[in-house]
Specification:
mainly alpha, Growth Hormone, Chain: A, 2 domains, two-stranded antiparallel ribbon, 16 helices, 2 strands
Length: 428
């Protein structure tokens, strides 16, 4: 089917600021909304299913529609996709602010999730088309840093907003930032339509490009080895060592600060030292994730938490090193007219794996705790309440062991797939 898409245009001075402003909100919405649930339940009701959908509705809509937006953006243009995405998130955020019930709030969060998928797909495709060479490397390095900042600082920023205003203030800020980015879309370079033959919405044929497939698997490793612990390590610190929430939050900086620093640092190093290839960066990342997960097994009620600081730094580096770099490289090995579809598929791997493995972590941990405790004691311990540190540590050790095994299998898979990569990565 022949339809219109965008030709390459030089980036305007506004390209990177506009894209980054919008992109910061997306991971912040993923990581920072859960902290508002206790206050939301106080105001709108505590039905457990409806309450969890405040988070899950956004995440599921985000994961599922990345594929759709990838193909749509190839047809209507990446700038237009980005603009539509900002509009949907603004609408969803405003709906969240004024929501009179959990059902309305859930629907608003689904709308925001659909818009967030369009923003992420449009962002990566816009940057890929606007920059090349060293400028593309630097642009995606900054893009990766902002993603990491949004993910890591989401709970902190949301917590501050809740303490200053209330839970609705979180969504007010989302709406304001995205409205500004939506207006900024007008400053992005105009695109001239050209006739291009597009493939299907879900084009799994892109995965025949082994290099692209390998890059899709790298974010899955980050989901397994980092995002799960970013979500649940504070509970482990509470359940095993009785650490307070405030102290746990400070300790988590050891894990999140490297996420801020690594993408830009590695971007500069790759630019200066061509021998530092994307393959070497990915290998370093995978090794750091495996070693970091192995290291946090030292967490025990009988040891100082200082034992896990270095492993936490390794986890942050493992997640932060390839952020952005992977996106830029993945889109560079796919034909330009399939950039949006490729971005959607890559982000589906990323967001979908986060949802699956974060949920899987909780299932495994709860199952192991449930084998040793029953009733309220099991529920409270699995939630991270202190009282049975030996039981929680046993469950934590088992769960981390599963993560390490998954990381090892995925590492071998990525290495094997890259070895099969064609000399010329571009596919039609």
């Amino acid at each position: 089917m022949s339809t219109a898409t965008e030709t390459h245009s030089p980036p305007s001075a506004a390209t990177l600021p506009v894209v980054l402003a919008a992109q910061f909100v997306t991971p912040m919405a993923i990581a920072g909304t859960a902290i508002a649930l206790p206050l939301i339940s106080r105001d709108l009701g505590s039905d457990p299913t409806a309450l969890q959908w405040v988070v899950n509705g956004f995440n599921i809509a985000f994961a599922l529609t990345t594929l759709l937006w990838g193909a749509v953006s190839d047809r209507i243009g990446h700038r237009r996709t980005f603009g539509i995405g900002t509009g949907l998130v603004v609408a969803g955020s405003v709906g969240s602010v004024v929501a009179p019930s959990l059902i309305v709030l859930d629907l608003a969060r689904v709308i925001a999730g659909v818009g967030a998928a369009a923003i992420l797909t449009g962002s990566t495709a816009l940057l890929s088309h606007a920059y090349d060479g060293a400028r593309r490397t630097k642009a995606f390095a900054v893009f990766g840093t902002v993603n990491g900042l949004g993910l890591a600082l989401g709970p902190t920023i949301s917590g501050l907003l809740i303490s200053v205003v209330d839970w609705r203030g979180v969504f007010v800020v989302h709406a304001v930032i995205l409205a500004a980015a939506g207006l900024g879309t007008r400053l992005l370079p105009a695109a001239e339509p050209t006739a291009v033959d597009h493939g299907p919405i879900l084009d799994l044929g892109l995965l025949r490009n082994k290099e692209f497939l390998a890059m899709c698997l790298v974010p899955v490793a980050g989901s397994i080895g980092f995002v799960t612990l970013l979500t649940y390590l504070p509970s482990a610190l509470s359940g095993i060592t009785d650490l307070s929430a405030g102290t746990s939050g400070l300790l988590m900086l050891a894990m999140t600060i490297p996420v801020f620093v690594a993408p830009v640092a590695i971007g500069h190093l790759i630019t200066r030292y061509p021998a530092l290839t994307i393959g070497k960066v990915v290998s370093l990342s995978l090794a750091a994730l495996i070693l970091g997960n192995a290291g946090v097994l030292a967490l025990s009620q009988d040891r100082s938490v200082g034992w896990i600081i270095v492993p936490m730094v390794l986890l942050g580096l493992g997640f932060g090193l390839p952020i952005g770099l992977v996106d830029g490289h993945a889109l560079s090995v796919v034909a330009p007219e399939r950039g949006g579809t490729a971005a959607g598929l890559l982000n589906f791997f990323r967001i979908g794996s986060e949802a699956v493995f974060v949920a899987g972590y909780a299932v495994v941990l709860s199952a192991v705790v449930g084998n040793q405790l029953t009733g309220d004691a099991a529920h409270e311990t699995a939630a991270g309440q202190y009282g049975h540190p030996d039981v929680y540590r046993s469950a934590f050790t088992t769960t981390i062991g599963v993560l390490i095994a998954l990381l090892a299998v995925l590492t071998f898979a990525i290495i094997a797939v890259r070895r099969q990569a064609r000399p010329k990565g571009v596919i039609a």
